[in-house]
Amino acid sequence: LYDSSMIRHRFTLGRFADARGPSACAEPEHLPIEPDSVDVAILHHVLEYSAQPHQLLREAARVVVPHGHLLIVGFNPWSLFGLRAAATRRVGHPVWGGATLAPKRVKDWLALLGFEVTGGGLDAYVPPCRNPAWRARCGFFEAAGDRWWPIAGGVYYLRATKRVTGMRVI
């Protein structure tokens, strides 16, 4: 999706250099970006692995322009993914070792930072397992997920817009 984006001026920010090569390396809690300079910031499973998720959201709010967007993707703790994450967190598993945050909590934090949640949803209702046969057997979870257990999606998506009160020149 990143490569097919119509936005021409884009960059990635990572903690470490990888094979794809981020544009810059920095800690997400201390962004080396000017205030009010980013139209869209995407936090893809970043909050779960941050030692200071509040600070990370404050930094994202600082760099997003007024009426800009913040897109957040995270694991839902009220799902089978959340149960697996809670069970393997003690082991220090690289994928499931993060602290899952409930979408309602993240929405509250965004409201405190002056964002309005304008969209979102849940996805990934199939249980997290490696065996393809089991995933195929549980395929009906995806079809029935939104209808029968809408709060149990493994992954949540939030789109928030930064709202700024305007000033009137007298």
Q: Could you explain the architecture of this structure?
A:
The chain has helices at 53-63, 80-88, 103-112, 132-137, 140-148; strands at 13-14, 24-25, 38-44, 64-75, 115-123, 155-162. With 170 residues, the chain is an alpha/beta fold. It has a four-stranded mixed β-sheet with strand order 3-4-6-5. A two-stranded parallel sheet has the order 1-2. The termini are far apart. 21% of the residues are buried.
Summary tags:
170 residues, alpha/beta, four-stranded mixed beta sheet, 5 helices, 26% helix
| Helical content (DSSP H or I, runs of 4+) | 25-40%
Query: Total helix count?
Result: 5
Q: What is the radius of gyration?
A: 18 Å
Low-pLDDT ranges: none
| Distance N to C terminus | 45 Å
Shape: globular
Task: Give the SSE string.
Answer: EEEHEHHEHHE
Beta-strand residue percentage: 15-25%
Mean pLDDT: 80
**Total strands:** 6
Give the strand order of the largest sheet, numbering strands 1, 2, ... along the chain.
3-4-6-5
**What structural category do the secondary elements indicate?**
alpha/beta
How is the secondary structure organized here?
Blueprint: E1 13-14, E2 24-25, E3 38-44, H1 53-63, E4 64-75, H2 80-88, H3 103-112, E5 115-123, H4 132-137, H5 140-148, E6 155-162
Parallel strand pairs: 1-2, 3-4
Antiparallel strand pairs: 4-6, 5-6
Compact description:
The chain has 170 residues and is α/β, with parallel strands linked by helices.
